[in-house]
Amino acid sequence: LSLVTDAFSRKIMGYELSNEMKATDVVKALDMTISNRQYRHYAIHHSDRGLQYCSAVYQAALQKGDIRASMTDGYDCYQNALAERINGILKQEFLLSACSTLNELKQLVEESIFIYNELRPHLSLGMKTPNQVHKKDQQQTLLV
After folding, report:
1. Tens of pLDDT along 6-46?
2. What is the domain count for the chain?
C-alpha cells in the first residue's frame, strides 16, 4: 500500500494498492494526490529512501507536479514518523480482516481510508478529522 499524506491535515491524499512495490505503483498514488490537490501551496514530498522513491520515474513525476523531494538521511523510522504513524493506524484499527483477493483488499483499503479521512477524529488535530482540517486550511488559503 502506497500512501501520500498531507502533513498539515494528516489527510491521505492519494494511495495505490498492488502486490508489488514498483515505482510505477507509487507514481499512481502521487498522481491521485496531484489530481485531488485543490490549492497550490509550495509542496514538499517527504519519503524514505526506498528504491521506488529514488527512481527516475518517481522523481520525474514529482518534478512534473511541481513538488520538491525530501528524503530521510537513512533508514531511521523516526525521520518519517508521520508515515509510520498512519501505516500503524491503518493496520491496527482498520485492516483487520483477512481478504481472499486483491480486489477484496482494495475495497477494504478504500473504505478504511474514507473512514480515516472523513470520520476518525485525531487528538493531534483538536479532535477534528483530517478532512475537516484540510478543508479549513483550503478555505483560509483562498482568503489570502
Report:
1. 888 899 999 999 988 889 999 999 999 998 887 667 788 88
2. 1
Residue 81 is part of which domain span?
2-143
CATH number, residue 25: 3.30.420.10
Torsion of CA 29, 34, 38, 40, to 10 degrees: 130
Q: What pLDDT was estimated at residue 137?
A: 66
- How far, in Å, are 42, 59, 76 from residue 19 at the CA level? 32, 22, 25
* CB contact burial 39-67 (16+ within 10 A = b; e otherwise): eeeeeebbbbebebbebeebeebbeeeeb
pLDDT digits (tens, 9 = 90+) for 78-128: 677 778 888 888 888 887 878 899 999 999 999 999 999 999 999 999 999
pTM for this one? 0.83
Question: How is residue 9 written as a grid cell?
Answer: 491535515
